[in-house]
C-alpha cells in the first residue's frame, strides 16, 4: 500500500466521514489523477476528454480519419481514460463524450476544413447533435471504440459514459444505437448517463428516464439556458444574472430528481455550483441527490460538509418521531 508520511493510504482515507451521498471528482487531465489519490472521492463523476483531444492528440478526428490514422485517436483516448480508470479501480469513471463547440474544434490541427462558421457555437453543433450528424458520426464512432477498448481489451469495467448537451429523445436514441453498433451497450456493469443541461431534459425527464441509467446536472449550461444568459458574458455576470443558485435553476433540479427517482434513475451534479457555492449542497442533499461531483480542491470540504448535512437531516428525523 502507498504510504503518505508513514501512514498508509487506506488509513488516511478512513479518517474521513462516511456519506450516503457519493462524492465524485471532476477531472480533465488524466496524468494528474496520481496527485489526488489521497482524496476521499467515490469515483470520477465527470471525466472531460477535451484535454486529451486538444493536448495529447492535437488533431481533429475527421482529419485523422481522412489521412488514414484513426487508430491514433482511439489509442490515445483509450490511454488517457485507462490511466484514470486503472488508478482508481474499481470506483467508476464517468467519461463524457466530447463536447467541444465548433470554434474549439476548428483550433485542432486540420480542423478548419470540417467545421462550419457558427454565429452561436454555444447553442450550435455540439454534444449529441454532432454524433448523429453524417459529418461527425465517424468521429463519434472513434470515441466509442476507445471506450470499448478500455472496457473490453483492457478489462476496465469501471468505465461508464455520459452524453453531453442532450436536447431531444430522438437524437439520444440515435446516438445510443450508434454506440450499440460499435459493440458498447448498457448493462449491469455499464451505466449510460446523460447530462441535464438543456431545459428540455428536465421538462421531459420521464421520457429521458426510460432511455438511460442516470442524469448528471450540468449546472453551468443549465443555468445559462434556463435563465437565457450567455455564460461567457462578463457584463451579465457582473449584473448578477448568471447564477446557478437562481430559484428557477433550483426548481429544475428539484423536479429532475423527483422524476428520475420515480423511475429508479440516479441523479448527480457535475457543474461548478457545488464546488464554488457550497451553500447549495444542503438543498441538493435534501432533495435526495445521489452524488455530487466537484473539483479536486473542493473534495475534502464538500465531503465533510455533506456528512454534517446528512447528520443534521437524520437528527431532525429522529426528533420528529
Ligand atoms: C456544465 O455545463 O455544467 C458542465 C459540467 O459542462 P461544461 O462546463 O463542460 O459545459
Ligand atoms: Mg456543459
Automatic annotation (TrEMBL):
This is Phosphoenolpyruvate synthase. GO terms for molecular function: ATP binding; metal ion binding; pyruvate, water dikinase activity. The chain holds residues 464 to 784 of 784 of the full protein. Catalyzes the phosphorylation of pyruvate to phosphoenolpyruvate. The keyword Kinase applies. It comes from the Archaea. Keywords: ATP-binding, Kinase, Magnesium, Metal-binding, Nucleotide-binding, Transferase. Residues 9-310 form the PEP-utilising enzyme C-terminal domain. The keyword Ligase does not apply. Belongs to the PEP-utilizing enzyme family. Coiled coil: none annotated. One of its GO terms (biological process) is gluconeogenesis. It comes from Sulfurisphaera tokodaii (strain DSM 16993 / JCM 10545 / NBRC 100140 / 7).
